[in-house]
Specification:
69% helix; globular; mainly alpha
Length: 488
C-alpha cells in the first residue's frame, strides 16, 4: 500500500512538471512571436526578441525546476545556436532580422576562462580528499580552539568557512559532518549542543564560499561581468576579491557563532574532541601539498609581479595532478558537471544580450539613469535573497547579473554614490550566499537536515537571522569600501 502511494505521488509530481514545461513552452512561443512593438524598446530586432524569449524560458524553467537546471542551460545554448547564430537553420535567417551571433562564441561559454577557474576548485577538492590533506588540516586547525564547547563550535565554524573558500561548499559540509560523529558521542543526546554543531556546518559552508572567487558559482558569475574586457573591465583579481571578502567572512562567522549559541546553548561546558580519518603518506601527498601552496600563492600574488592571471593559474593544479596520477579519469566523474553547465548557460544568456545589441537597446529605451542607486541595490539584493532560498543560487545569479550589468552601464557615473557597479554585482554574490533559510535553499542545508538532528524551524531561525544580518553587514561594508574606491 505504501509503495502504491509512493508511486502515485511520484506520478503526480512528474505530470505536474510536464504541465509546467508545456506552459513554459506556450509562454515562450507567445513572446517569440509577438510584434516587436509590444516590448517598448525602440528599434528592437527579431534576434533581440528571440533573446528575450529565451531569457523568459530560462527564468521560468529555473524557477519551476520542471526540468533539471543543467538541462535548462544546455537548452539555452542549443536554442541560441540553432535560431540566433550565423549557423542557425535557414528558416530562422533572413535579411533585416538583426545581428546574428557567432555560434563558436555561444559554444565557448562552456570553455570560458572562469569555467576553468571553477574546475580548478573541484580538482583541488578531489585531490585534498584523496590524499587526506583535508583531514590533516581539520585535525590540526581545531586544536587551538581547546575543549570548551563554545570554542569548539567557533572552531567548526572557522574551519568549515576556510575550507569552503577553496572547496565546494557541498563537499565541505559533507566532510565536516563526518568529523562531528565522535563529538556527538561526548554530548547529551537531548541537549541543544548537537543542533548547534550541526547548524554550524551549513551556515559556515554557505558564508565561507564568499571569501574567494572559486568559493561559490555566484562569485565567478559576478567576476565574469566585472572583468569583461568588452564590458566593465575592472580587473578584479583573486587577491583583490579576497582582500575584501575574506575579512567579511570572518566577521559574519563570528556573528553567526553568537546567533547559534543564542538559539542553541550548550548544556555541557567541555567536549573531548577527536577527529579521525585516513591521511595518506608518500610522494603524492607532497605533490598535493606543494601544488596547493603554489596555486594559492599564484592566485594571491598580483599579476603585475608573476605575469600570469588567475584563470591561467587554474590550469596548473589540473595539469600537475593529471600527469602525476593524483587525479584519474574516474575522479573526473565526481566533478559536479551539472553546476558547470548552469554557469555556462548564464554566460550564454549574457552573450546573447550583449552580442545581439539587446543590452544597448534596453539602455537607450529604459531611463536607468533616472533610477535611485540605493533602490536598485536594495531591490536587486532582496530579489536575489528571496529567489536563492527556493532555487539554486547559481541559477539566480545567472539570471540577475547579466541584467544588472546592463542596468549599471545605463546609469553611468550615478552609481559612484554607492561605490560603483562592483557594489551592485558583488552584492548579488553576497545575497546569493546568505540565502539559507530552508533545507532546499542550499546543498549544505540539505545535508545537515538529512542528519535528522535539525528541524525545519531550527534551520529557519538560524538561517533567517544569520542571513539577514549577513546581507546587511555585507552591503554596509561594500558601500564604505566602494567609497574608498577599493573595488570600484
Amino acid at each position: 500500500m505504501a509503495e502504491e502511494k509512493s508511486n502515485a505521488l511520484s506520478s503526480h509530481v512528474e505530470m505536474k512538471k510536464v504541465w509546467e514545461f508545456l506552459g513554459i513552452l506556450v509562454v515562450t512561443t507567445i513572446i517569440w512571436n509577438l510584434p516587436t512593438s509590444c516590448f517598448g524598446i525602440d528599434g528592437l530586432t527579431v534576434v533581440q526578441q528571440r533573446i528575450i524569449a529565451i531569457f523568459v524560458f530560462a527564468t521560468l524553467s529555473w524557477l519551476t525546476e520542471c526540468i533539471p537546471a543543467w538541462a535548462t542551460s544546455l537548452a539555452i545554448m542549443t536554442i541560441m545556436c540553432v535560431t540566433v547564430s550565423k549557423n542557425a537553420f535557414g528558416i530562422f535567417k533572413s535579411d533585416g532580422i538583426g545581428e546574428l551571433l557567432d555560434s563558436k562564441e555561444i559554444m565557448a561559454s562552456f570553455a570560458d576562462p572562469i569555467i576553468m577557474l571553477f574546475l580548478a576548485g573541484f580538482i583541488l577538492a578531489i585531490a585534498a580528499s584523496k590524499s587526506g590533506l583535508d583531514t590533516l588540516l581539520a585535525r590540526n586547525l581545531i586544536k587551538p580552539f581547546g575543549n570548551k564547547s563554545e570554542n569548539v563550535l567557533l572552531g567548526f565554524l572557522f574551519i568549515t568557512g576556510i575550507f569552503s573558500m577553496f572547496i565546494s561548499n557541498t563537499a565541505t559540509a559533507a566532510l565536516m559532518l563526518t568529523f562531528l560523529a565522535p563529538v556527538f558521542a561526548a554530548l547529551p543526546a537531548n541537549g541543544k549542543g548537537r543542533i548547534a554543531l550541526t547548524m554550524s556546518i551549513p551556515v559556515a559552508a554557505n558564508l565561507g564560499g564568499m571569501g574567494t572567487p572559486i568559493g561559490t558559482p555566484p562569485n565567478l558569475i559576478a567576476l565574469k561581468y566585472l572583468n569583461d574586457p568588452q564590458g566593465l573591465n575592472m580587473n578584479i583579481d583573486f587577491m583583490h576579491w579576497m582582500a575584501f571578502m575574506a575579512p567579511l567572512v570572518i566577521i559574519l562567522l563570528i556573528v553567526s557563532w553568537r546567533i547559534i549559541l543564542y538559539f542553541f546553548p550548550f548544556t555541557q561546558k567541555t567536549i573531548q574532541l577527536k577527529i579521525d580519518g585516513e591521511v595518506h603518506t608518500g610522494w603524492r601527498m607532497w605533490v598535493v601539498i606543494i601544488t596547493f601552496i603554489i596555486t594559492i600563492l599564484l592566485w594571491i600574488i598580483p599579476k603585475d609581479i608573476t605575469g600570469i592571471d588567475t584563470n591561467t593559474v587554474s590550469m596548473i593544479p589540473m595539469g600537475i595532478f593529471a600527469v602525476t596520477g593524483v587525479i584519474t579519469a574516474k575522479d573526473m566523474q565526481e566533478i559536479n558537471w551539472s553546476v558547470i553547465w548552469m554557469v555556462a548557460g548564464g554566460f550564454a544568456i549574457g552573450l546573447g544580450m550583449n552580442g545581439s545589441g539587446l543590452a544597448d537597446a534596453a539602455i537607450e529605451s529604459i531611463p536607468f539613469g533616472n533610477w535611485s542607486p540605493i533602490i536598485i541595490l536594495i531591490i536587486s539584493g532582496l530579489i536575489c535573497y528571496f529567489l536563492s532560498n527556493f532555487i539554486s543560487n547559481t541559477a539566480t545569479a545567472a539570471l540577475l547579473v547579466p541584467i544588472l550589468a546592463v542596468v549599471c552601464r545605463g546609469m553611468g557615473n550615478k552609481l559612484d554614490g554607492i561605490g560603483g557597479t562592483s557594489t551592485i554585482l558583488i552584492g548579488i554574490a553576497i545575497a546569493a550566499s546568505t540565502a539559507m533559510c530552508l533545507p532546499i535553499s542550499t546543498p549544505p542545508n540539505a545535508i545537515a537536515y538529512s542528519t535528522g538532528l535539525v528541524k525545519h524551524n531550527d534551520m529557519l531561525k538560524v538561517g533567517l537571522t544569520s542571513g539577514i544580518i549577513s546581507i546587511i553587514l555585507g552591503y554596509i561594508l561594500l558601500y564604505f569600501i566602494g567609497q574608498a574606491n577599493f573595488i570600484g
